[in-house]
Design brief:
The protein has 24 helices and no strands. The protein has helices spanning 3-62, 65-73, 83-95, 98-106, 121-127, 131-139, 154-161, 164-172, 188-194, 198-206, 221-228, 231-239, 254-261, 264-271, 287-293, 297-304, 312-318, 321-329, 344-350, 354-362, 377-384, 387-395, 410-417, 420-428. Helix 1 runs antiparallel to helix 2 (65-73), helix 15 (287-293) packs parallel to helix 17 (312-318) and helix 21 packs parallel to helix 23. It is flat. The relative contact order is 0.04. Residues 1-50 have low confidence and may be disordered.
Length: 433
């Protein structure tokens, strides 16, 4: 390449570079100006739109039809699909303002409107028991099986709140009685059973609800009813074919759920309908263990004599020293991690059984063993207000600054529970504030 050609290309390159530098310099002050102007314009317009939207939502929530109409005349519903327009309709439906809902729909509000959480306007009307609004929305084309982010429907929300007439209305309009939530596959029947809504349970069964619907790791309708505790709901489900001994993914049965909650009436009905009292969870807990852990004395009295094989955790929760001594002599592991990694020592501390605690500690129980949820033995003793047991555990090396699953220290728990003597003892032993 000749020297003249090289010089010419170098000059061209320098010129291009100079132009590029100049362009960058111009853009460096033009672009910020454009951004500022755009932001200013957006702020003014946005504020005006947002102000109308907020005012419209507030007026709709208050049921001020005249104010809503005035705002609509000012163009507050220029875009029926935008968020604030949907918020106004949802607010009116939620608060039960039928005529405001009608007005907004007449002006083009979206009958399929959703809240920020994905809840439909029909779901809000159903949840809050507004029958006529629900009827109006359905007449205007609302999707009766519309779902939120968790696949919950209006039928589920109505069933949960016990709104029988809305449940009837939704079923008459084609609501799916066997639809399932995204979480655990819970059905409308399970929800109604859990909330003790007997007439809704009967209606769902009449409409073909699957009484033994498989929800995977969660629960069946009978389990939900047992936890809810209404004996009549439990009885109806059993009469209609609910299987009493189905276990969830962790091995829990309907009887265990009733025992945990202390629902004696439900326990009696389940036992009279072939519920197996000796079924165990993956971690070895029976219905009796659940009742004993929670200190449900009536349930314990009902179950203890019929349970064939008692465990060291049973003995610990019940305070049965002789049983505990015998089981340990027979080789029971004092540090066995049972349900949610709870040890027998934790069970004894929760239920205030000092003699068993000393026995377990003397036989090698780990004083600081921590369950998956809740806390170590010291935390359970502090929560229960068991001063003597707190003394025993501290003397055996319990961590005075132990924390529970919520990151609360034993001292904080003592203060929250109002256990002043325990709090003073913990501070004297060096507990951090």
């Amino acid at each position: 390449m000749s020297h003249s050609l090289i010089r010419r290309r170098t000059a061209e390159s320098d010129a291009i570079s100079t132009k590029a530098t100049l362009a960058r310099s111009i853009m460096s002050w033009i672009l910020p100006l454009v951004v500022v102007l755009t932001m200013f314009q957006g702020t003014v317009i946005g504020e005006d739109t947002d102000t109308l939207g907020v005012q419209r939502e507030d007026a709709a929530r208050a049921g001020d039809q005249a104010r809503v109409q005035k705002l609509l005349n000012q163009g507050a519903l220029a875009n029926p699909k935008e968020y604030m327009a949907q918020a106004a309709l949802i607010a009116a439906a939620e608060e039960g303002h039928l005529e405001v809902v009608r007005l907004l729909l007449d002006k083009g509000a979206d009958v399929q409107a959703e809240s920020g959480a994905g809840s439909t306007v029909l779901m809000e009307a159903a949840r809050n028991g507004h029958l006529e609004i629900a009827r109006l929305l359905l007449d205007r084309g609302a999707n009766v099986n519309g779902t939120d982010a968790d696949d919950r429907t209006a039928l589920m929300t109505a069933a949960e709140k016990g709104h029988l007439e809305i449940v009837r209305l939704l079923l008459d309009h084609g609501a799916d009685v066997n639809t399932k939530e995204a979480v655990c596959g819970i059905t409308p029947l399970i929800i109604a059973a859990r909330e003790n809504h007997l007439e809704i349970v009967k209606l769902f069964l009449k409409k073909g609800a699957d009484i033994n619907a498989d929800t995977g790791e969660c629960w069946t309708a009978l389990m939900a009813a047992a936890e809810g505790g209404d004996p009549e709901v439990v009885k109806v489900l059993l009469e209609k074919g609910a299987k009493p001994n189905v276990q969830d993914a962790y091995g829990r049965t309907a009887l265990m759920r009733a025992a945990e909650k202390g629902h004696v009436g439900a326990i009696k009905i389940l036992l009279n309908n072939e519920a197996d009292i000796n079924i165990k969870t993956e971690k070895g807990w029976t219905a009796l263990t659940w009742a004993a852990w929670e200190g449900n004395s009536e349930a314990v009295a009902l179950l203890k004599g019929q349970t064939s094989q008692l465990s060291l955790m049973d003995a610990a929760c019940l305070g049965d020293f002789e049983l505990g001594r015998r089981l340990v002599a027979d080789g029971a592991n004092v540090n066995a991690k049972t349900e949610m990694d709870r040890t027998p020592l934790v069970g004894a501390a929760k239920n205030g059984h000092g003699k068993l605690i000393e026995f377990l500690l003397d036989n090698g129980a780990d004083v600081n063993a921590k369950p998956m949820y809740g806390g170590a033995a010291l935390i359970e003793a502090v929560e229960g207000g068991h001063l003597a047991i707190v003394r025993i555990l501290l003397s055996k090396g319990a961590n005075v600054n132990a924390k529970n699953a919520e990151n609360q220290t034993v001292l904080q728990i003592a203060h929250m529970k109002g256990h002043k003597e325990i709090g003073d003892l913990l501070k004297a032993r060096g507990a951090a504030k």
